[in-house]
Design goal:
Blueprint lengths: L2 E6 L17 H12 L3 E4 L16 E4 L1 E2 L6 H19 L5 E5 L17 E7 L6 E7 L6 E7 L2 E6 L2 E7 L8 H17 L7 E5 L7 H5 L4 E3 L28 E6 L3 E10 L6 E2 L5 E8 L3
Parallel strand pairs: 1-5, 4-15, 10-11
Antiparallel strand pairs: 1-16, 2-3, 5-7, 6-7, 8-9, 9-10, 11-13, 12-13, 14-16
Length: about 300
């Protein structure tokens, strides 16, 4: 029963994929203004920069959320990733087996430290533009069960324990066009079937559209949205309820949609804020689900 997570960062279209491409981007600043203005506070768990997947005991510290400031550093982004593991462990009871981060390229020298976290293997896929990259983090113990099936503009597909998981950052050019999005998913599903790895079991990521049911409706019959509430309560915030996962907290850009004919939703989705370490480093909430293959 793998735990699968996704976190979208906020990078620009630069062909240089370093810290500068992700630092103080307009939508990240907008998210920071919103949460600071609303008085949001982060429940910051203890974590280790050198070993993300090691559960760390200790209470959460309640801290006011701040905006990025000063020169760009790897630490803020590394803390967000480290805390994804700690928060999901506390929420679900298991560390993520596979975490994909959109708009992040850890092959760049600026992120060398993120590649050195013990217990994790990193794989980068994507486009020349920083905003179209994906980095996958896999626990070393399960890396042998994970296989890259396909990659392209706006997506990467991995197999984990025989499940085909489609991680998306749907291109803005098609994101709100229902017909084009249906074709996007249909082509990917047909490719998986052709190579013997289909159909799609789970779609998770940044869909770049506002309706929580848009992705479910763009997929074949039998898919369901893992999040059925109209409210998002980030697990790592204190007493926060909002209507979405984007910078304004009003639109459901980030979703998990699963194939009810092939898998069971065992836990989640667990949503995390843009500010797990009390510094807003992105414009999107992260999320995680635990799923299992249906038997029979």
């Amino acid at each position: 029963m793998p735990v699968i997570a996704y976190q979208s960062f906020n990078a620009n279209s630069s062909t240089t994929h370093g810290l500068a491409s992700m630092w103080q981007q307009p939508l990240t600043r907008a998210a920071a203004r919103r949460v600071a203005g609303a008085g949001h506070q982060a429940l910051v768990l203890p974590s280790l920069d050198s070993e993300f997947t090691l559960p760390v005991e200790g209470p959460a510290h309640l801290r006011p959320i701040q905006a990025q400031a000063g020169a760009p550093t790897q630490v803020a982004f590394g803390t967000q990733i480290a805390l994804i593991y700690q928060n999901i462990f506390r929420a679900i009871g298991t560390m993520p087996d596979l975490l994909v981060c959109g708009e992040l390229d850890v092959s760049n020298a600026d992120f060398a430290g993120l590649r050195q976290s013990s217990g994790l293997l990193a794989n980068v896929t994507g486009n020349a533009k920083a905003c179209q990259c994906f980095t996958a983090f896999a626990q070393a113990g399960v890396a042998g069960q994970i296989k890259l099936l396909a990659e392209g503009l706006g997506f990467v597909i991995y197999s984990i324990n025989g499940l085909s998981v489609l991680f998306v950052h749907v291109p803005n050019a098609i994101a709100t066009n229902a017909a084009k999005v249906r074709d996007f998913y249909a082509q990917l599903n047909n490719h998986l079937v052709t190579i013997g790895s289909g159909p799609i079991d789970l779609v998770i990521g940044d869909t770049n559209q506002s309706s929580s049911n848009f992705t479910q409706n763009a997929l074949p019959q039998g898919f369901a949205n893992a999040h059925t509430s109209t409210v998002v309560s980030p697990f790592d915030n204190w007493n926060v309820k909002q209507g979405g996962t984007n910078s304004a907290g009003s639109k459901m850009f980030d979703v998990a949609v699963y194939n009810t004919t092939t898998i069971n939703l065992e836990a989640g989705p667990v949503y995390l804020s843009q500010s797990s370490g009390a510094v807003t480093v992105t414009d999107h909430c992260g999320l995680a689900v635990k799923v299992s293959r249906k038997v029979g």
